[in-house]
Amino acid sequence: MLKLENISLTVGNFELKEISFEVKRGDYFVILGLSGVGKSLLLESIAGLIKPTGGRIFLHGEEITNKNIQDRNMSIVYQDTDLFPHMDVFENIAYPLKSRGEEKIKEKIDPITEVLGIMGILKRKPVTLSGGEYQRVSLARSMAAGNDLFLLDEPLASLDSKSKSELRALLRKLNRSGITIIHVTHDYEEAISLANIIGIMENNRLVHVAPPEEIFKHPKSEFVAHFIGTKNFFSGKLKSINNTDLKEFSSSGIKIFCLTDITDGEAFLTIQPEEITISTVSESGSSRNHFAGKIIDIAPAKQGMEITVNIGVDIIVIISKESMIRLNLGIGKEAWINFKASSCKIYN
Question: What are 215-224's pLDDT values in tens digits?
Fold first, then answer.
């Protein structure tokens, strides 16, 4: 349905680089990333509000890169969409129909307002609406325009938790009715609850596009890893050792042994803090990996205490408060950490 090929754009000193992805009809595609990575600019380039400096955009197989917004047959809804303040709700929804000179407007609007649950507020002015009602009216106006591709820019960001839950349910309903949605957000819970495909934006690029279960089970960015509570996440290079499943992972000058059948090359490694032991003397035991370092931080965790040890990279260990006291651990003290090769999870 929609295809971006190597889209780049520059706004002031900000630049997006070579972004490519495809959205199929019926997809709920969420673009997820921190504030300031260019998510909204990308959405506006799709809508035709900003012209790319490179690349091409296709809709239904037709190139639309240089088409005006009114010729793209898509609707864009912002976090703070401006409804016409002098018009009531019905008039706002009817506006795109009236502008095209269509007839039997009420007959066309009634099913939309029923689906969105706003039939009881049609005579009210925008200033009297709650945040959730306001967004429902914005969506209704987009539906009245007859477009089957919605571009949503942080549509739930300013809503309270109850309104967010209601709007998420409504967006899922609209998507199931056949509307294809591209939704920009920084909220990973929002992404999980809505998307069938997620695109992760980081460092002005689209770094990973996949279904939610793959994105969050096999994170390929530090941004996602932090979201899902992965404390120890590293990018580096994987190299075989004597054609066995025991391999060497190198990152920031540290070499870690791991058991994996992942192909050699660029890879990502995670280690659960609970699978790492800490001591004040070298006690490698059966562990393949043992490193000396210095404790740089100690903080309470949900279960026990979170100890950060710098071994050239920062490694987080979780132990009980009793163990921390028994070992007499403290910030600035030397410590050894140990973990098995089988504790390392490798992704590529």
Answer: 877 777 777 7
